[in-house]
Design goal:
The chain is α+β, with helices and mostly antiparallel strands. The chain has helices at residues 3-27, 74-82, 104-107, 113-116; strands at 36-40, 52-55, 57-58, 62-66, 84-89, 92-103, 124-130, 137-138.
Length: 153
């Protein structure tokens, strides 16, 4: 491993920690609107519900979420282990199923051109499907399933 790779890995780890503690709590105040959503996974070890702000774009009966830190993030691992999660988006909460990792080539068609530059270093994405049927509930009508006060894993 080169020194440049080690420095980059340290920076990415520092940035992940910083975003979890500082940026994510701020993002949660407006996530769920426009291109931002809130992933509501349940911890695979703790069983605790979490809230994590993400960028999400609708795509073929589901959403595509960029994984700028790769598939090792807690929320991604939790969604994969549980075979799904809930997602707050556009004022509603959805049950998401069939999480799977997709490459850049498969995912970029979901994103408008103006976001391509922002995603230029992102090579992994998660695809989630909406659970078929009337599963959406208003996030304000009790649809939050107890996810409102926990951390951002």
């Amino acid at each position: 491993m080169t020194t440049e790779n080690t420095i980059r890995e340290r920076f990415v780890n520092w940035l992940r920690h910083f975003n979890r503690r500082v940026t994510n709590p701020i993002m949660l105040t407006f996530a769920g609107r426009r291109i931002y959503a809130v992933v509501l996974p349940v911890g695979r070890k703790s069983g605790r519900p979490y809230r994590t702000p993400v960028l999400a774009m609708p795509w073929n009966q589901g959403v595509i979420i960029p994984l700028p830190y790769g598939q090792g993030t807690d929320w991604c691992q939790n969604a994969l282990a549980a075979r799904g999660c809930h997602l707050e988006w556009s004022g509603r909460e959805y049950v998401m199923v069939a999480p799977r990792l997709v490459g850049r080539e498969s995912a970029m068609g979901a994103f408008p051109g103006w976001l391509h530059a922002l995603l230029r270093h992102t090579h992994e994405f998660m695809r989630l499907d909406f659970l078929p049927g009337p599963t959406a509930s208003s996030a304000s009508d009790g649809g939050n399933r107890g996810h409102s006060h926990h951390g951002t894993k």
